[in-house]
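Take a record:
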Amino acid sequence: MSDTLHSILDRVAAEYPAVRATFPSEKESITYGDLSASARAMAAGLLARGVGRGEPVGILCPNAPEFLQSLFAVSAAGAAATPLPLPMGMRHAGAYPARLAAIAEAAGMRRILVSHRFGALVEGLEVPGVELISTADLSGDGPLPAVGPDDLAIVQFTSGSTSLPKGVRLTHANVVAGLVAIREGIALGQGDGGGFWLPLFHDMGLFGTLSAVLIGIPAFVWSPLSFINDPARWLREFLASGATITAMPNFGYDQLAAAFTAAEAAELDMAHWRIAFNGAEPIAEAAVRAFQERFADGGFRPETMFGVYGMAEATLAVCFPPLGRAPVFEHVDRDKLADGGRAVQVDGPGARAVAGVGHPVKGLRLRVVEVESGVEVPEGRVGEIQIQGDPVTAGYLAADAERAGESFVDGWLRTGDLGYRRGEEVFVTGRHKEMITVRGANYYPQDVEAITRTTPGVYKGRCVAVAAPGGAEAVWVIAESGLRGAAAEALTADLRKAVSTELGLTAVTVRLVSPRSLPRTSSGKFQRLAARDLVAGTA
């Protein structure tokens, strides 16, 4: 396979020159013909500035045409495109320069391409040893280097839900294999269109968009704020665009269901919506059922909800369900799952719903092994999920090598995720690092959170459960709430009682924090361990 990202774009531009990537939030679009030509001119400009083969080049752009232009320009120049996170709101702006500098140092980055829209953001911004280059000023003319499938294409930083983000090294061969797996897994074709709002610096937003662009179908890319500020408006615009594919974490479907009344939902025309990827965080049965029920009268089909499992290290896709299948959930004994590692199917109280995410995608192999011994476990037993195959990274940036050194064993990538198999179906149960142990018994944080998030007074159900810091044998529940004084004390008591009653846990500490203060990853997942560190630092 000799394809590279920019060579595929060149073919798409020749065959579908007038098809567009549209950015509704910016009220701009670019044809694939212009995208290819402008990326090549920018690549020549990069070479004139001395960019070297395999050099990581940062991309600091919103969801706008210049992000894609920069990505393909870096690719054509033989360098490695490194999408950089944007500050998540004003409360993060003060710490942003230090974060950017840390990523640049970890990546060995000497240049960052910056959107012309970010004048205010970069005014006075200094990243030691790094040249900031405006995307509006980058152009040139001249020959471009030969780039092969084994060359580095993208350095994708992980979301960092349980640790500091790591720089994942992805070759052109990795990325092309990952895009093929996505395309074949959903039978993506010329009648489709992609519509996404996740940030392009996040793997689900990036590879979802590339899967559309690189087969020559329309791509619609909104800003994340357009969804967060008005989910109902976003959904109406998505449906009006004619796009058939979208992707978002579970919480996005929660917000959409809450944004419409039954009557309003019934007025929508959702019949052309073909794939609704649900991934990047645990898939909640209640959220899926609520969404399906809310939008059934608007033409949303159960089989459109497409619960998946993926990660940056696999160029996104790991497991997809079969096409045309409604979501599958197993109800298993919560206690046996957490403390005994056995998925025993039960009904009634004490059951936990676990989503089936299908089977490994094309080119990827998966096994479930006992965490300590590495021996494969039988069906229905929980173990660590490990993967290998064409889309899977061969490693991390040199700066991450030491702490990521144990991520591979015998050629298999240790995902850090726990799960089990039932026949060909894979079920993901949680993260190994987030398990809570109290007096020798294990608990999944999701089980604690399922009990506490519905307690009145918890802001929008936002809470996390973590093991107490310092090795103490206790559970910490950290919940967002706007209550103060006696009302806050009553909520604390209610949360402690709910966990103690349901799980038999007496060692429970409750900490209340302000609304919207729990840290999240770029995809919206709560960072449980970071939340604990934050609260412990103020204790």
Notes: The two ends are 55 Å apart (CA to CA).
